[in-house]
Amino acid sequence: MSFFHAGPAPKGLGPRPGALRDGLGLQAGMKVGLFGGSFNPAHDGHAHVAETAMRRLDLDRVVWLVSPQNPLKSNHETAPLSERMASARGVAKTVGPAMIVSDFETRSGVQWTIDTLRLLKARYPGVQFVWLMGSDNLASFHRWRGWTDIMHLMPVAVIARPGSQLDSRTAPAASRYARFRIPAPRAGLLPSLQAPAWTYLTAPLNPRSSTAMRATAGRHPAEG
Ligand SMILES: Nc1ncnc2c1ncn2[C@@H]1O[C@H](COP(=O)(O)OP(=O)(O)OP(=O)(O)O)[C@@H](O)[C@H]1O
Ligand SMILES: O=C(O)c1ccc[n+]([C@@H]2O[C@H](COP(=O)([O-])O)[C@@H](O)[C@H]2O)c1
């Protein structure tokens, strides 16, 4: 199992003996954010999501799950996994030692988030997981495979992203699960709640996107 801790484990939360063999080094009782992404490349918007979730949900760890390939995106622009892992490691390091960057999905041969989350829940029964995503993904969440199963599997925290806030608040997933929404000031309770439970964390916003970074990187210097 390949994984990467972005620094020494925080004091008192180091992996127990044998934890490295388990893969991610997660221990029962930990509150852990699962942050899936293409990270093509990673950027400070991702750091913003991880930091916001750590602070507002009072998490012990955030696992950056570098996806083999978003099943809803075209693969022709997706950089090799090794490059995206390196990119995610570089950015995760800026957030701190509670970040874990993992190719768990590739190693496990899964692509759909529902399968990933079921595997992780089965493997770490005592861990309190929360699925993390930007609000653009809440807007299209009803198109994900088994999205209602995801809602019933673990709590979900949505971090506001510029350009998708209105969309996501009126999204089918938001309406369908409106009565399970936890007000943001009580988001610290989320990891310990039984699913379905979700929250929407607003402001401050970070405008960065991988698409914009790829566009800039691809532009000829003379184009400015
Ligand atoms: N600036 C941001 N603010 C809030 N959430 C973000 C931000 N950037 C990315 N995310 C979230 O991070 C997760 C992984 O995103 P991803 O790796 O696809 O980056 P991206 O910038 O959205 O990429 P692309 O532009 O290629 O679609 C998604 O849940 C996405 O919503
Ligand atoms: O399982 C699905 O149907 C599904 C559809 C779209 C995206 N996802 C996951 O959502 C996460 C964010 O994807 P992306 O490409 O926006 O970074 C990543 O872990 C994807 O595997 C999952």
Automatic annotation (TrEMBL):
<feature type="domain" description="Cytidyltransferase-like">
    <location>
        <begin position="34"/>
        <end position="214"/>
    </location>
</feature>
<feature type="region of interest" description="Disordered">
    <location>
        <begin position="1"/>
        <end position="20"/>
    </location>
</feature>
<keyword id="KW-0520">NAD</keyword>
<comment type="similarity">
    <text>Belongs to the NadD family.</text>
</comment>
<dbReference type="InterPro" id="IPR005248">
    <property type="entry name" value="NadD/NMNAT"/>
</dbReference>
<keyword id="KW-0548">Nucleotidyltransferase</keyword>
<dbReference type="GO" id="GO:0004515">
    <property type="term" value="F:nicotinate-nucleotide adenylyltransferase activity"/>
</dbReference>
<dbReference type="InterPro" id="IPR004821">
    <property type="entry name" value="Cyt_trans-like"/>
</dbReference>
<keyword id="KW-0662">Pyridine nucleotide biosynthesis</keyword>
<comment type="function">
    <text>Catalyzes the reversible adenylation of nicotinate mononucleotide (NaMN) to nicotinic acid adenine dinucleotide (NaAD).</text>
</comment>
<keyword id="KW-0808">Transferase</keyword>
<dbReference type="Pfam" id="PF01467">
    <property type="entry name" value="CTP_transf_like"/>
</dbReference>
<dbReference type="InterPro" id="IPR014729">
    <property type="entry name" value="Rossmann-like_a/b/a_fold"/>
</dbReference>
<protein>
    <recommendedName>
        <fullName>Probable nicotinate-nucleotide adenylyltransferase</fullName>
        <ecNumber>2.7.7.18</ecNumber>
    </recommendedName>
</protein>
<keyword id="KW-0067">ATP-binding</keyword>
<keyword id="KW-0547">Nucleotide-binding</keyword>
<comment type="pathway">
    <text>Cofactor biosynthesis; NAD(+) biosynthesis; deamido-NAD(+) from nicotinate D-ribonucleotide: step 1/1.</text>
</comment>
